[in-house]
From TrEMBL:
Pfam families: GerE, Response_reg. This is Response regulator. Residues 11-130 form the Response regulatory domain. PROSITE patterns: HTH_LUXR_1, HTH_LUXR_2, RESPONSE_REGULATORY. It comes from Agromyces kandeliae.
Length: 223
């Protein structure tokens, strides 16, 4: 990930085979103070240019040419294999838990959102900012699907209703401060809930972002 000062806006590239959607995403991000420094029709085009772009993050469609299956996720996996820690936000037409699991399995600094979020400027901008800072984001519709199918013997059953609400917002990329505002709680109360969640899910001490990603993966049913 690029070293960034407070004065320099985030530098982001977009890869999507739909030109109009690329332009729409760029307009939303630029409206949020983000510099869009590259726009590409395929994941391969982005990969070919990525070393020269000095990126903080990239936004990729999951289904792009040539097969329209999982090219965006393949690009994410190649970026991580190359050792890059830039934020990667994957966009999809569908709330597919299996895609979300694969995306989040790539580690911190990754996210999975539905394309309809492009019409929600604050949501899209916040998601890009979150992955650029090393955090994780999962679309709330995917989170809802996974919560509904949680089994009674799942480790999530150890959580209280309030802790579950906090974890769901963590999965959507909210910081502790954002969770506090959303749930009308004090920041220290949220911090206490987060510590309790990590303990109940048996997540050992590690860097903060890493533990939060592991908590989200538990919510997704991957651990």
């Amino acid at each position: 990930m690029v070293e960034r000062t407070e004065e320099r806006p985030l530098r982001v590239a977009i890869a999507d085979d739909a030109l109009l959607l690329r332009e729409g995403i760029a307009k939303v991000l630029e409206g949020g103070g983000i510099d869009v420094v590259g726009s590409y029709g395929t994941g391969d085009e982005l990969l070919a240019a990525i070393d020269d772009l000095d990126l903080d993050a990239a936004v990729l469609d999951i289904r792009m040419p040539p097969t329209h299956r999982d090219e965006g996720i393949v690009a994410l996996e190649r970026i991580r294999q190359d050792g890059s820690e830039i934020g990667i936000l994957l966009l999809s037409m569908y709330a597919t838990p299996e895609y979300a699991l694969r995306v989040m399995g790539a580690g911190s600094g990754t996210g999975y959102l539905l394309k309809e979020r492009v019409s929600e400027p604050q949501t899209l901008v916040r998601a890009v900012q979150t992955v650029a800072s090393g955090g994780s984001v999962v679309d709330p519709e995917v989170v809802e699907q996974l919560v509904q199918r949680t089994r009674a013997d799942d480790p999530l059953a150890r959580l209280t209703e309030r802790e579950r609400s906090v974890l769901e917002l963590m999965a959507q990329g909210y910081s502790n401060g954002g969770i506090a505002q959303t749930l009308f709680l004090g920041l220290k109360t949220v911090e206490t809930h987060v510590r309790s969640i990590l303990q109940k899910l048996d997540l050992e001490e590690s860097p903060e972002h890493h533990r939060r990603v592991l908590a989200v993966l538990t919510l997704l049913g991957q651990r």
